[in-house]
Amino acid sequence: MGDMFRSEEMALCQMFIQPEAAYTSVSELGETGCVQFRDLNINVNAFQRKFVTEVRRCDELERKIRYIETEIKKDGIVLPDIQDDIPRAPNPREIIDLEAHLEKTESEMIELAQNEVNMKSNYLELTELRKVLENTQGFFSDQEVLNLDSSNRGAGGDEATAQHRGRLGFVAGVINRERVFGFERMLWRISRGNVFLKRSDLDEPLNDPATGHPIYKTVFVAFFQGEQLKNRIKKVCTGFHASLYPCPSSHNEREEMVKNVRTRLEDLKLVLSQTEDHRSRVLATVSKNLPSWSIMVKKMKAIYHTLNLFNMDVTKKCLIGECWVPTKDLPVVQKALSDGSAAVGSTIPSFLNVIDTNEQPPTFNRTNKFTRGFQNLIDAYGVASYRECNPALYTCITFPFLFAVMFGDLGHGLILVLFGAWMVLCERKLARIRNGGEIWNIFFGGRYIILLMGLFAVYTGIVYNDVFSKSMNLFGSRWVNNYNRSTVLTNPSLQLPPNSSAVGVYPFGLDPVWQLADNKIIFLNSFKMKLSIIFGVLHMVFGVSMSVVNFTHFKRYASIFLEFVPQILFLLLLFGYMVFMMFFKWVTYDSHTDFQPHTPGCAPSVLIMFINMMLFKNTPPPKGCKEFMFESQPDVQKTFVIMGLICIPWMLLGKPLYIKFTRKSNAHSKHNGQLTGNMEVAEGETPLPTGFSGNEESGGGGGNSHDDEPMSEIYIHQAIHTIEYVLSTISHTASYLRLWALSLAHAQLSEVLWNMVLSLGLKMSGVGGIIGLYIIFGAWCLFTLAILVLMEGLSAFLHTLRLHWVEFMSKFYEGLGYAFQPFSFKAILDGEEEE
To answer: Which GO terms fall under biological process for this protein (predicted)?
Structure first.
């Protein structure tokens, strides 16, 4: 039961595992997830450790799996979800089979991919040739046939003869569309305008064989005269990465060539289709097992990484490891080791020894899906010191309650309840969402916090009697109108005196008549401001009281008298007294009394009274009233202020003087303990399982001793602590006024949205009014969700978080520990999925 209030007890253990059983034993420990290993090879380079070859082998398998997964995603094949059937770590025989299978699959995929690229390159070339032949039909005419000669037709001597006789030559090809203008300008420059270029843009883009991206190209024909100019043009085409293709000048030859190209394209398309089908069949077969293989390789790699933390004994026959284990899980670890040895048939069992240590153990708070969100809020401030009181348990109630004080609206609370309940009821389905984004993960991780915040907001909304800025008359107003009809109609405002118009008390929450009152803001300000101070002082008193739990657990009994008592007295004698006077004022002053000093008009201001109390001043009361609420109040206030002032030097000097006077005796007893091998135990102390124990001067975690600290530093540290506590008591009390400020702002924003948006639609009439109300209601819903629920909810959440971190936890929480990070397959897989 104690583990609910503080972190679990930890034990430092030493493992002795046989090398043949090491892999299976660590695999069993990874499945349990309750062991945090320590690195015994800190000074050894990562590349010189025993199992570095196996880790590299796993890296190679992961590379192959990533390559195959990329190819699968490229084809749009969906990988199966195996969250409900996660495989265990593979044994060595399965590793060999898996490695062979992945090697074969990768080789086949690489070969298929290379063949596909080659065939697509051929397909692209044939397609470009077909486009050249088809688009150059308009570049030639029958009259030009006798005067043209293809650059790729006939022997070299014939070409030279033809060029010499004055016939025109030409080259045809395809070039990227964005390079056309530079290409055309370069041809004009090298030929001095003696090249005639015709071009035509292709309507349909072509696909890149390697990447599959679309490419926009242009067909061109360049006419020239002379062999030298021809060579220059070809060099320019090479520089601009233009593809040149043979193009006969004869119309019949071009038609024949187009037919041949189309036939070859059809054959190549058939081969490509068959290759794609074969590739899809291979990938579909592999995709069924790929997620399981990926998890198996990740587990195997994690096991070898963990084995690299072990140390080999001098005989090279045993692996030695050290780990932190929760004492409750020691039987689980023992069973995992025996199961690991039995799996390989090892005749020598593995051993687990608990060893003593003076190191501070890691902090481990066992959580479930409900408490995990609240624990994350606390850990974000700082991980608790070992065995320190855990505020998360109390935060489960105080956090949503203080949020609801600022977010008190029944309608808005119901929206949060519905959202939180949807995430809670459908959590199994929603947990499978992989790519929800960081914001969705935050909302889903805090689904129980949102649900509780909504429930508490519904409760405070009923107390405030506020539903979308309107009130509900559930029990009937307790205010009665004693004026006649003519008086009501002729006077713009009338006063309802409580002694004659108030009949009893509204059963629960605020009376709905305050919704119509002109002094509604004044009344709610006074009501919510006093509630904020009351809740704030109670919250701080609870925080200071929690320090007693830490002092008692760590056997720092002197700190109860030297720290807790003056702190709680200072808080209660000043601000606790102010809270008492609020309740006393509510009870004492009544409109139904005939005693004038106890009428509401004579009720003094608690704030002015508190200021006068601290400054020892008096304020003259109105005629017929009394300055104080009871007879002996001046003497009581002076006594409280003087006692509060006495608490300051008590906090300032008490602990340093205690350390100074007890240091000599502590040093003497500690010296004797060192001579006898630390076997002496002080009277009344109980040693921890790990040998880690607290002392009178230690911190909340029991790890910060003052024995070696100079007295001057102790005095300075205590002076800073005292000044901080005294000033923070005042500032933190004022800080709780944010409960009142945000509650007022939320109510006013809600009222503004109703009066300036939705009420406009409600005042419309006719068919246009129906359409207008439909549009205005949508706008009102949008503003309500975006501003009042989302933005105001986030603002209230952050203010509540600050009240817990600064005003509450600073009274007793140190947060100087480090988190328990066990070797867990589940944590490793979940962490990689989030990345």
So the answer is: vacuolar acidification
Distance of CA 61 to the CA centre of its chain: 31
pLDDT at 835: 54
Give the integer Cα–Cα distance in Å for 179 and 175.
7
* Three-state SS annotation for 107-138: HHHHHHHHHHHHHHHHHHHHHHHHHHHHHHHH
Q: CA–CA separation, 543 vs 10, rounded Å? A: 26
What is the DSSP secondary-structure string of 759-786? HHHHT--HHHHHHHHHHHHHHHHHHIII
Q: Which residue has the tokens 């298929």?
A: 112
Q: What is the DSSP string of 576-644?
A: IHHHHHHHHHHHH--TT-S-GGGSGGGPPPHHHHHHHHHHT---PPPTT--SSSSTTHHHHHHHHHHHH
Query: The tokens of 361 are what?
Result: 């153990």
Question: Is the CB of residue 240 less than 8 Å from the CB of residue 183?
Answer: yes
Radius of gyration of the chain (CA): 42
Task: Please report, for residues 202, 304, 348, 471, 825, the alpha-carbon distance to residue 319 in angstroms, rounded to integers and kept in the order given.
Answer: 70, 13, 13, 72, 21
Q: Quote the CA–CA distance of 94 and 104 in Å, as a whole number.
A: 15
Residue 9 has what pLDDT? 93
State whether residue 683 is helix, strand or coil: coil
pLDDT > 70? residue 190: yes
- Residue with token string 């107003």: 477
Closest to 362 measured CA to CA, from 389, 386, 328: 386
Separation of alpha carbons 535 and 250, rounded Å: 99
Mean pLDDT of 108-113: 87
User: Does the pLDDT of residue 693 top 70, yes or no?
Assistant: no
The tokens for 454 are 């909504």
SS (H, E, C) 310-339: CEECCCCCCEEEEEEEEHHHHHHHHHHHHH
Report the C-alpha gap between 363 and 61 in whole angstroms: 36
- Identity at 483, one-letter amino acid code: Y
Burial of residue 673, with CB atoms counted within 10 A of its CB: 0-12 exposed, 13-18 middle, 19 or more buried: middle
Q: Which residue has the higher pLDDT, 269 or 701?
A: 269
State residue 667's pLDDT score. Answer: 55
pLDDT of residue 834: 61
DSSP secondary-structure letter at 37? E
Q: End-to-end CA distance of the chain, in Å?
A: 36
Q: How far is CA 403 from the centre of its chain?
A: 20
Cα angle vertex 220, ends 215, 223, to 5°? 160
Q: Pairing relation of β-strands 168-176 and 351-355?
A: unpaired
Query: What SS3 state is found at 11?
Result: strand
Read off the pLDDT band of 567 (50, 70, 90).
very high
pLDDT of residue 154 exceeding 60, the answer is no
Q: What is the pairing mode between strands 148-150 and 351-355?
A: unpaired
Other Cβ atoms closer than 10 A to 335? 12
pLDDT at 328 over 70: yes
For the cut 70, the answer to whether the pLDDT of residue 669 exceeds it is no
Span of 148-157, 264-273, 534-543, 716-725 with lowest mean pLDDT: 148-157
How far apart are alpha carbons 732 and 148 in whole angstroms?
A: 97
Q: Which residue has the tokens 């004693």?
A: 482
With the C-alpha atoms ordered 136, 137, 142, 146, is the resulting torsion angle positive or negative?
A: positive
